[in-house]
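for the recovery benchmark. tokens below, seq after
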């Protein structure tokens, strides 16, 4: 693996990154590939329930030049997601053409000197799974296990780091509480069942991968929020402790014996009070999220107690004016390295996202990319990093 001594890290004044530290960027399948026609998202888009993703950033066809650009930018890791609905468009039917497509994609990442970090399930489900109840159906653990086993069997040697499911808590919140993602439910009573099925799915995916590849590094991707008491009262501190446990630790603790590594996504902080949520430190991005770089340090210390290697799998900013991104990355990496110096086993930092993406229910308006995409012409242009 090449060490990062490159353009981006120099420009960000990061100094030399530690030997072997992974530094790169990521994307998911549906958000950039285009034409993900067998997925529940595509289906909902066609029903008019979501913005249409269309050809997205056409990453399905343009990955080679995108990885070349990532390599030129000096990265040594790239995170992608494999689309379950491409591998298994119908129940029990493995699409070998898609398997070969991902093989070529993974080999291309390697050829460009990048470590291959792969998420097996990033928000989307095959439409056949959704039609059978999706996350509400306990069979999903078996289906996902089978799929993970197929990927490990057929593509395992092309994958360096595995993540099973992206952001279980976001699935609960966006699909079952706020009702903004498929299946658009606003029913908190479904949350315990869905959570149970997600945890069982993670375990079964982990087991199926490890059965075939005992030395594989397999984890989950967890989105954690840094909570801070708005007032320094016992009440506010108690609320913060509770939220922080439920939101940041509970899921990990339920699967600790099925985790070799942890993927941490960090975007924002929340200052909370028993008198309602409020804002304190307010450096807002286009998403309206309040960013706070030192929060990453606290979150790393918090989950550092599990003594597992941690990769920051997502940290990013929607910033169309491109005037905050550089500083955002530099400060977050600084705090990640500080936690590392203090003994937390932080192994890498992956910016979200490499390209501008289809930002789920928000469509194409939000600009997270290190690389700007003109969605008319598919031209790429490096942003100010
Ligand atoms: C998701 C990404 C998404 C990002 C920004 C994360 O929760 O994993 O897919 O693009 O947030 O909204």
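predicted aa per position
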């Amino acid at each position: 693996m090449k060490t990062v001594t490159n353009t981006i890290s120099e420009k960000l004044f990061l100094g030399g990154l530690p030997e072997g530290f992974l530094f790169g960027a990521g994307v998911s399948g549906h958000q950039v590939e285009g034409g993900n026609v067998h997925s529940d998202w595509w289906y909902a888009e066609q029903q008019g329930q979501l913005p249409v993703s269309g050809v997205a950033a056409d990453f399905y066809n343009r990955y080679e030049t995108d990885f070349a650009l990532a390599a030129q930018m000096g990265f040594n890791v790239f995170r992608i997601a494999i689309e379950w609905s491409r591998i298994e468009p119908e129940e029990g039917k493995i699409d070998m053409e898609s398997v070969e497509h991902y093989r070529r994609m993974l080999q291309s990442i390697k050829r460009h000197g990048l470590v291959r970090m792969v998420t097996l399930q990033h928000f989307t489900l095959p439409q056949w799974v959704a039609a059978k109840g999706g996350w509400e159906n306990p069979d999903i653990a078996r289906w996902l296990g089978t799929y993970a086993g197929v990927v490990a069997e057929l593509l395992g040697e092309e994958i360096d780091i595995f993540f099973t499911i992206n952001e279980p808590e976001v699935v609960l919140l966006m699909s079952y509480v706020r009702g903004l993602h498929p299946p658009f439910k606003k029913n908190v009573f479904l949350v315990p069942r869905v959570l149970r099925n997600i945890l069982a799915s993670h375990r079964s995916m982990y087991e199926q991968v490890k059965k075939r590849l005992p030395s594989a590094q397999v984890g989950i991707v967890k989105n954690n929020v840094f909570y801070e008491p708005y007032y320094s009262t016992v009440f506010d501190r108690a609320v913060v402790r509770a939220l922080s446990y439920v939101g940041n630790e509970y899921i990990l603790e339920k699967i600790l014996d099925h985790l070799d590594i942890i993927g941490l996504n960090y975007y924002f902080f929340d200052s909370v009070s028993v008198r309602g949520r409020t804002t304190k430190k307010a450096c807002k991005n286009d998403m309206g999220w309040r960013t706070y770089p030192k929060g990453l340090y606290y979150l790393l210390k918090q989950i550092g107690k599990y003594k597992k290697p941690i990769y920051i799998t997502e940290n990013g900013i929607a910033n169309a004016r491109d005037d905050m991104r550089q500083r955002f990355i530099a400060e977050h990496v600084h705090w990640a390295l500080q936690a590392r110096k203090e003994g937390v086993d932080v192994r890498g930092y992956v910016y979200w996202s490499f390209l501008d993406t289809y930002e789920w229910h928000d469509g194409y308006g939000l600009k997270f990319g290190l690389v700007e995409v003109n969605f008319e012409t598919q031209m790429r242009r490096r942003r100010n990093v």
